[in-house]
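Researcher: Please predict.
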Amino acid sequence: MRKPIIAGNWKMNKTVAESRELVTALLPKVKNAKCDVVVCVPFTDIAAVAELTKGSCVAVGAQNVAWADSGAFTAEISAAMLKEAGATYVIIGHSERRQYFGETDKTVNMRLVQALANGLKPILCVGEMLAEREGGKTEEVCRTQVVGAFEGISAADAAKTVIAYEPVWAIGTGKTATDAQANETIGYIRSVVKELYGAAVADGMRIQYGGSMNAKNVDGLMAQPEIDGGLIGGASLKADDFAYIVNAAE
């Protein structure tokens, strides 16, 4: 059985003071969680949140990682910096990074390699745009992104990765894939992993749904056999909503 994982992606929200307030409200609400819980916070919040969550069931993640150990890469943050600040997880290849900041399958692969080499647990994002969904290209897009991300990565390292399937058309739009659509696409992604690494890795890999999972739809989505959790956007900024999702994901 794959243990569910619920990760909050705070995106560019919450100052240090606001992050402390949110996490202080969240911790007692999720103390009996049966799933893995992660909050992926802005770089400036990592140390404060890591201190608050020490000894709890909540892990801390970053929202990106540099592809190099150090060097002339203005505004990038290295894996060593993230780890020292207290992060144990990192989101890689989020659609907003691809859409607005020029991430490609190649740079996603480079960042994934770096995260794994430094002992960070990656949450790798893949998913299609609305036009690609409507054009019948969902599987083609997901296959290309998965194969590109894992290029040159061993089965042992791939097995440490969580994949988040995020239909881009369902992020922040209020739209969501139906339970059946999400389950079918995640099942397809798992089949691609199986082709790359075999059944044992594919069957053990946790694949989340990342398209506007919230308190209203979590029960239906989590009832699907292929869905192992969620990468939560807006709902992760509200302690009650995020706690409801966490506690529904048993």
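Model: The first strand starts at residue 5 and ends at 9.
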